[in-house]
Amino acid sequence: MPNRMIAPLIFISLFFFHFSTHAAELELFDQSFGDFSEELSLAKEEGKSGVFIFFEMDDCPFCHRMKTTILNQPDVVAYFKEHFKIFQVDIEGDIEMTDFDGTVTTQKDFALKKHRVRATPVMAFFDLTGERIVRYTGATSSKAEFMLLGEYVLNQHYKTISFTRYKRQQRKTQ
What we know:
- By secondary structure, this protein is α+β, with helices and mostly antiparallel strands.
- It has helices at about 5-25, 35-45, 60-70, 75-85, 105-115, 145-155, 165-174; strands spanning about 50-55, 85-90, 95-100, 105, 120-125, 130-135.
- A hairpin with a 5-residue loop joins strand 5 and strand 6 (about 130-135).
- The protein starts with a helix and ends with a helix.
- The model is unreliable at about 5-25 (pLDDT under 50).
């Protein structure tokens, strides 16, 4: 192969690798038009158990680690997509959106003023009425812990026990 063809082939390969990796990273998150009251209706229609929101910011290394090592795993994507509508919220974002109760706000105000998110990542689960039922601050230590968090919410263990105690109980039974 002539040398002049190698550089364009390398560029094209890297281009497709970058975007295919990025696309896989984002396949967990549902597309939204920024109206969470409408997303609740869709979650109900689709038979979901609730809404999962990943509060993040661009330069957060823990968010990046979660997205590239846990949130992009096929079994994680399958499990969470089966049970939840899933969205990202940029805690520094000025994009206008509508809250679960129909209030027009920005992503930044939704995160800070409504949900007191100051550090990232924060993972929040909401029931089908828009009430926050579980909040987890920080990155999970592993894919197993993240899956356990989903199970904890789905099976409504949050009603009787903290996630920390639930994890401890699960370790004892394994």
